[in-house]
Amino acid sequence: MKKIKVGIVGGSGYTGIELLRLLAQHPKAEIVTITGRKDAGTHVAKMFPNLRGRLDLTFCDPSEAPLDQCDVVFFATPHGVAMSMARELTAKGVKVIDLAADFRIKDTEVFSKWYKMEHSCPDLLAKAVYGQPETMREQMKKADILGMAGCYPTTIELGLMPLLKLHSAEKDIVNLNVSIIADSKSGISGAGRKADVSLICAEAADNFKAYGVGGHRHEPEMVQQLSEFAGEKVPLTFIPHLLPTIRGIFSTIYVRLTEKGTGVDFQSLYENAYRDEPFVDVLPTGSLPETRSVRGSNMVRIALYRKEPDLLVILVVEDNLVKGSAGQSVQAMNLLMGLPESTGLDQIALMP
Amino acid sequence: MKKIKVGIVGGSGYTGIELLRLLAQHPKAEIVTITGRKDAGTHVAKMFPNLRGRLDLTFCDPSEAPLDQCDVVFFATPHGVAMSMARELTAKGVKVIDLAADFRIKDTEVFSKWYKMEHSCPDLLAKAVYGQPETMREQMKKADILGMAGCYPTTIELGLMPLLKLHSAEKDIVNLNVSIIADSKSGISGAGRKADVSLICAEAADNFKAYGVGGHRHEPEMVQQLSEFAGEKVPLTFIPHLLPTIRGIFSTIYVRLTEKGTGVDFQSLYENAYRDEPFVDVLPTGSLPETRSVRGSNMVRIALYRKEPDLLVILVVEDNLVKGSAGQSVQAMNLLMGLPESTGLDQIALMP
Amino acid sequence: MKKIKVGIVGGSGYTGIELLRLLAQHPKAEIVTITGRKDAGTHVAKMFPNLRGRLDLTFCDPSEAPLDQCDVVFFATPHGVAMSMARELTAKGVKVIDLAADFRIKDTEVFSKWYKMEHSCPDLLAKAVYGQPETMREQMKKADILGMAGCYPTTIELGLMPLLKLHSAEKDIVNLNVSIIADSKSGISGAGRKADVSLICAEAADNFKAYGVGGHRHEPEMVQQLSEFAGEKVPLTFIPHLLPTIRGIFSTIYVRLTEKGTGVDFQSLYENAYRDEPFVDVLPTGSLPETRSVRGSNMVRIALYRKEPDLLVILVVEDNLVKGSAGQSVQAMNLLMGLPESTGLDQIALMP
Amino acid sequence: MKKIKVGIVGGSGYTGIELLRLLAQHPKAEIVTITGRKDAGTHVAKMFPNLRGRLDLTFCDPSEAPLDQCDVVFFATPHGVAMSMARELTAKGVKVIDLAADFRIKDTEVFSKWYKMEHSCPDLLAKAVYGQPETMREQMKKADILGMAGCYPTTIELGLMPLLKLHSAEKDIVNLNVSIIADSKSGISGAGRKADVSLICAEAADNFKAYGVGGHRHEPEMVQQLSEFAGEKVPLTFIPHLLPTIRGIFSTIYVRLTEKGTGVDFQSLYENAYRDEPFVDVLPTGSLPETRSVRGSNMVRIALYRKEPDLLVILVVEDNLVKGSAGQSVQAMNLLMGLPESTGLDQIALMP
Question: Of A223, A252, B97, D181, which residue is least crowded by CB atoms under 10 Å?
Answer without folding.
Answer: A223
